[in-house]
Amino acid sequence: MTAKGEDQARLYFALWPDEPTLRELEVVQADVVGRKTQKDQLHLTLAFLGNQPIGKLPVLAAVLEHLPETGFVIELDQYGYFKQQRIAWIGCAEVPLALLDLRESLMESLSIVAPRYKRESRFIPHVTLARDAERPVQPFASSICWPAKRVVLVQSLPTSQGVIYSLIAERLLDGAIASVAPVAPAS
After folding, report:
1. Chain-centre distance for alpha carbon 28
2. Where are the beta strands (DSSP E) in the chain?
3. What integer is the mean pLDDT of 109-114?
4. Facing residues of 144 across strands?
5. What is the pLDDT of residue 176?
6. What is the Cα–Cα distance from 47 to 119, expressed in whole angstroms?
7. pLDDT tops 60 at residue 4
8. DSSP class per residue in 65-82
9. Assign residue 108 a region: left if phi > 0, alpha if psi is -120 to 50, beta otherwise?
C-alpha cells in the first residue's frame, strides 16, 4: 500500500512472442551464459511503468484500444549486452518503422492517462535472454523473424522463486481486442 492507502501494481507494456518465436528464442538463448529468462517470460518491453495504483488498471488497459491495429515483423539478428546490468539480449540491427510507430502511439496515450510516467530517453528494442550474464561472444547464427502481433499490459509479481509475469490485458495486432482476467493486488 502507498502512503495514501492505495494498492500498487508493478506494470509494463510489451510485445509478447508467439509459440514458434519463443522456440527460436529458446534455441538462441541456449548459447548465452547467465541466469536465463524463463521461456514463458521472454518479451520486448515497450514501456516500463513501475508501480501504479491498482485503480488505474482499467484506464491503462484501455490504452491498448488506441494502438495501431496492424502487426509487423521484427528481425532479431544481433546479440547485445548491457554491461552495467550484466544483461545479455537479442535485438535488431534495423528497428522496424512500425515498431517505432507503435511505441510512439503508446507514449502519446500514456502522456494523457499516466502523466507522471517518465519516458525512457533511449529506446533499445530487445528481448532479455539472461541476467547476471556474460557478454555473448559467439557469432549470431541466423536471424529470427518475429511476427509481432500481440501487445500486452503485464504485472510483475515478486515471489520467493523470483519474479513472475501476469498478463492483465492484451491487444492482438489484427484489429481484435482480447481481455485477460482482472489482476488481484500483489500481496
Report:
1. 18
2. 8-15, 35-36, 44-53, 72-76, 78-82, 87-91, 126-131, 144-148, 150-159, 162-172, 177-179
3. 90
4. 76
5. 61
6. 8
7. no
8. GGS--B-EEEEE-EEEEE
9. alpha
Q: What is the grid cell recorded at 32?
A: 548465452
Kindly tell me the burial class for residue 4, based on how many C-beta atoms sit within 10 Å of its own C-beta (0-12, 13-18, 19 or more).
exposed
Ramachandran area for residue 100 (φ above 0: left; ψ -120 to 50: alpha; else beta)? alpha
What are 172's three cell numbers?
492482438
**List of residues 6+ apart from 50 with CB closer than 8 A:** 10, 11
Amino acid at 21: T
Q: Contact at 8 Å (CB) between 176 and 113?
A: no
Average pLDDT over residues 132-157: 90
CATH class for domain 8-179? alpha beta
Q: What is the mean pLDDT of the chain?
A: 88
